[in-house]
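Revision sheet: structure tokens.
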Amino acid sequence: MVGTKVAIVSDKPQTTRNRIVAVKNMPDGQVVFVDTPGIHRPLHRLNVRMVDAAVDTLREVDVVALVFDASTRPGKGDEYVSTLFKHVKVPVVLVLNKIDLVSKSGLLPLMEQAKRWHDFAAIVPVSAETGDGVDRLEQLLLEHLPESDPIYPDDFLTDQPERTFVSEIVREKLLHHTRNELPFTTAVVIDQFDETERDPSTRPGKSGQGLLKLYCTIYVETESQKPIIIGRGGSMIKQIGTDARKELEAFFDTKVYLDLRVKVDPDWRNNDRTLDEIGVPKATRKPRKR
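Predicted:
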């Protein structure tokens, strides 16, 4: 919706771990999108902080867009999420995504069931894949926003620091190339962001020369997960690094040296220092005992 990549893309659940702000200036106004982690049952401090970030955001915005995968059957979790809106005083729009995978007749029962969950301001079917319905959603959100002066300048795009973007791109390639059980048990921390050889004029969207040196640690929880990421003869971690480096070079418009290391930390999801380093918002409550 903002026209450029500001968040990683994955088919794995719970991919988004921090709040991401992105701004779009339109002829009729400025829209500040706040993307949050998904709401799910928290079992670690990581999950508690993710869910808190999503719930806390409900009290800070002017309109809420609840995104639901229309190609799946709704369950108790979806119904629970809808209960969180009982005390939300701003309009809530239900966005039914992936309609390219569902027949029109299949959408109707889902829409009827959703109406029993909450009095949504609107229900908008869209396809992020094809773009179908996205323009209508955009205009609808704009109509529900209050009038005010712009919050951000015209050239502002996102609040994501460059270090966070780097760690997330590496994690995106990690999610793409590894097995399904790894997404929840891995994290990427930037150990060193060395700009000493980088052209000062080189920033995203500007041309320049130089070298950006990035040193990252990939955290896993068990020794058995480490060889999965490294691969035979280092083939997997080399592939992850190559794919990440290519995207980072395009983003920063400069040569990138990317060093990846794998470290085992069984309790990283409960380590506040590690969670701070990967940009997960602070938790406002304690995690449940497992």
